[in-house]
Specification:
The protein is of the alpha+beta class. The chain folds into two domains: 2-11 and 175-268, no CATH class; 14-150, no CATH class. The protein has seven helices and eleven strands. It has helices at residues 14-20, 36-39, 97-114, 118-121, 135-139, 219-237, 253-258, and strands spanning 2-9, 50-51, 67-68, 76-83, 127-131, 144-150, 180-182, 192-194, 201-208, 243-250, 262-268. Helix 1 packs antiparallel against helix 3 (97-114). The chain is globular.
Length: 271
Amino acid sequence: MSHRPRRHASLATIGILAVLLLTACGEAAQGGDADPDQVDSVDAPELGACRVLTPEDVLQASNATRTVECTDKHTAQTYAVGQLPPQFDDVAWDDEKLGAFAYTTCSTKFLAFLGADESLAMRTVVSWAWFRPSQKAWEDGARWYRCDLVGGGEQSERYVTLPETAEGLLQGRPQDRWMVCATGEALAGAPRIPCTEPHDWRAATTIKLGDAEAPYPGDRVVEVKTRDFCSTSVGAWLNYPVDYDFAYTWFHEAEWEAGNRRSVCWAKTPD
């Protein structure tokens, strides 16, 4: 039996990326088609609101894009809104601890909103991003957070349109339009696309590499464990063919510290 691994190391999923990145534009960058009433609002955003967000929008620390009716075309839905705990009352707007809080809070609520576990959620085209108040609003006392489900991930060139509500989207057996695939001879750098589009790679399984309290085991250990697991797991997923290609996406210490403990296994298949 021939197993041909295609190594692929990725920096982050979109949720983790949104946690770790703070744009240098900061306060001035509020997303496309900004609503003046939202830009420096101290009041918490509307839960359930829909917006047309782009990959560029979710890289900003704050967002004031106008809301649209959820019956209209949209690429994002706010699924969680809340006040930050008192421990953040006196911290700086860009304090790194905010990212850790957002990862835990938004990722947990993301799974509950979709009706999915971690493994399934990492293999879909939908992901999440979080936003804080503008720097001016922060200075005026605003301490809210907003978690948005978005129709794409870190390597998406564009976002897909979401249904009127994405709540329960992954319950049962999800449709291929929500599962993530990629096209191209090499997985690295390939845009992520829905599996309803022509593709060469499909995210088939994931591996959990440690519990929440486990220290980062190091790049070499993470990659080797991921590679060995994916070789076996993808073979089983493909029903043990004589010859197959597989690839894997593993993450580094920064993503581990943010809370991610999983790697993704990819099967090379045109189906």
